[in-house]
Amino acid sequence: MKTITTIAELRAALVEHRRAGKSIGLVPTMGYLHVGHMELVRRARSENDVVVASIFVNPLQFGPNEDLAKYPRDLARDQAMLADGGVDFLFAPGVSDMYPRPMETVVDVPKVGSELEGSVRPGHFAGVATVVTKLFNIVQPDRAYFGEKDFQQLQIIRRMVEDLAQPVSVIGVPTVRETDGLACSSRNVYLTADERRAAAIVPKALDEAERLIAGGLTEPAALEKGVLDFLSTEPLARPEVVALRDPETLEPIEEIGEKPVLLLLFVRFGTTKLLDNRVIAPKSAHFAKVA
Questions:
Q1: 131 is in an annotated binding site
Q2: pLDDT at residue 65 in the model
Q3: Which distant-in-sequence residues (6+ apart) come within 8 Å of 3 by Cβ?
Q4: Average pLDDT, the chain
Q5: Which residues partner with 268 through β-bridges?
Q6: Is a pLDDT exceeding 80 seen at residue 120?
Q7: What is the pTM of this model?
Q8: What separation, in Å, do the N-terminal and C-terminal C-alpha atoms of the chain show?
Q9: How much is the pLDDT for 284?
Q10: Is 79 labelled a binding residue?
Q11: Which of 29, 93, 95, 111 sits most deeply, having the most CB atoms within 10 A of its CB?
C-alpha cells in the first residue's frame, strides 16, 4: 500500500489504472478505524480492481462547539489495518492540502441536511457533502462505500450524487456490530466502562421497536413513545432523537402500513452521542432491504 498526501500525487498514481480500464473503489473515512470501516474496505476490495481509502478529519463538518482537536487519531495503526485489508492507496492529506485557502464553495442538500442530526448540528452535512464531492473529484471512483450506521449521511450523499449527476455508485454497507449488538463506531472509545455497558440498550431499543410493529402498532407517535420509554429504563441513557421516518426521503410518516419504515436513534451517554437505526418491515410487507 502506498500512502499519498497530495492531490496531484494521487491523481498521477491513478491515471494509468484508469487508462487501463480498471475499476476504482473509494472508502472515505476520518480515521481511527474499526471493524466497521474494514467491512467497507472488504466490500471495496471484492468489487474493484483498485481500492483507495482516505483519512481526513474534515474541519468543515465540525461546529464551533465541537472539539476538532480531540477527534481520535492514530495514523500508524490505521495504515497497518488498511494494508492488511488490501488497500492499494491511502490518501491522507493535511488540511492545507485539501483546503489551501478558505473554501468559498459549498455543496449542500438543505432539506434533508437540516433534519434530525442536522437540526442540532447546523452546517454539519454541508461540510460532509462538500468534502465528499471534493474526494469524488480527486479520486474519480466508480464506486464509493459508506456505512448504513450513519443513515442520514448516506441518504444525503445519495441525493447529492443523483442531483449533481456525479458518475459514481454509492454503496451502502450494513452496520457492523459488537457482540452485544452495539454498532461499531469511533465514538465508542469515549464511553466509560459503565456507559459502555449501558449503551447495549440502544440496539435493544431497535429490537423493541420491531416487536411493537410486529404486534400491530400502527401509530408513529405511539411507537416513538414506546421506544423512548424503553430507553428511559436505563439511567445513563439520555435519548435525544427517537424518530420514525421514510427510509428514502427521511420525511415523517403518517402511519405504519405495509411499507418499510426507518427508526433513527440518537442517544447520549455522558458526553458521547451514539447513533443507530434500523429499517423495519411490518409482517405483511414484501420489500428489498435498503442497500
A1: no
A2: 80
A3: 79, 89, 90, 92
A4: 94
A5: 238, 273
A6: yes
A7: 0.92
A8: 29
A9: 47
A10: no
A11: 29
Q: Is 176 annotated as a binding residue?
A: yes
Copy the grid coordinates of residue 86. Answer: 488490501
37 is in an annotated binding site: yes
Residue environment code for 260-269, b if the CB has 16+ CB neighbours within 10 A, otherwise e: bbbbbbbbeb
Residue type, 48: N
Distance, CA of 187 to CA of 66 (rounded, Å): 13
Residue positions annotated with a catalytic role: 37
For the record, the C-alpha cell of 109 comes out as 442538500
Q: What are phi and psi of 251, to 5 degrees?
A: -85, 150
Distance CA 57, CA 274 (A): 19
Residue among 270, 263, 274, 149 at smallest CA distance from 200: 274
Which amino acid belongs to residue 253? I
What stretches of the chain show up as alpha helix (H) in DSSP?
7-19, 35-47, 75-84, 95-98, 110-113, 117-120, 124-139, 151-164, 193-198, 201-214, 220-231
Cell digits of residue 207: 429490537
